[in-house]
Specification:
The chain is an alpha+beta fold. It has one domain. It is built from 4 helices and 5 strands. The protein has a 5-stranded antiparallel β-sheet with strand order 1-2-3-4-5. The model has no long low-confidence stretch (mean pLDDT about 90).
Length: about 200
């Protein structure tokens, strides 16, 4: 019985030590992982839709609380004015969640661009939601608070042929960005105004 107790204590000590090491490694690498995701996953999408801005939106960003979640907002400066914010939302695709970055001009409430960041859609079909500029361009210059649906659902967005579910997921993510924008619009405008100096 005494040997069993010693074994139990040894397992507990080893587990506590291992857990501590894993937690330390996770904490030490978390910032680096977040930065890598920012540069290599979100970065290309943000740079695509913020083409022509005079600042670096990946560096010029801030976090803001939205209900129970903290969101990253990327700032775009156009014509000497920081009046564009971009942030990520998610819609349900055929293969899982589709991450979508939507950039919005806070002066006009219009979308200046939409780009897919992550997806698990079928290559060559659903993946066109990320690569087809004609599909993405349908959202540009639309008021972000409009209702976005694909035409088979009674909306105004032409779905990608053979990828209605993926198209629906992108439209849902853009619609979600409109809801978030409505909730945070005043705070976003104040934050952008404060950053002008």
């Amino acid at each position: 019985m005494r040997d069993l107790f010693k074994l139990f204590i040894a397992v507990v000590i080893f587990s506590a030590f291992s857990g501590g090491v894993l937690a330390t490694v996770r904490n030490a690498t978390q910032d680096r992982i977040e930065y890598q995701q920012l540069v290599f996953v979100k970065g290309p999408a943000i740079n695509l839709i913020m083409d022509g801005c005079t600042n670096d939106p990946l560096q010029d960003r801030f976090k803001m609380k939205d209900q129970d979640k903290e969101r990253d907002f990327f700032v775009g400066e156009f014509d000497g004015k920081k009046n564009v914010v971009a942030f990520e939302t998610y819609g349900k695709g055929f293969g899982g969640d589709i991450g979508v970055i939507t950039a919005i001009d806070v002066d006009t409430d219009k979308i200046i661009g939409v780009a897919v960041t992550t997806h698990s859609e079928t290559p060559g079909v659903g993946s066109k939601a990320k690569t087809d500029p004609g599909f993405r361009d349908q959202f540009t210059d639309q008021v972000v608070t409009d209702i976005f649906k694909v035409k088979p659902d009674g909306g105004q967005i032409d779905a990608i042929s053979g990828a209605t579910v993926s198209s629906r997921g992108v439209a849902a993510a853009v619609a979600q960005s409109g809801e978030i924008y409505k909730r945070l619009k005043d705070d976003l405008k104040n934050k952008l105004k404060a950053s002008q100096g």
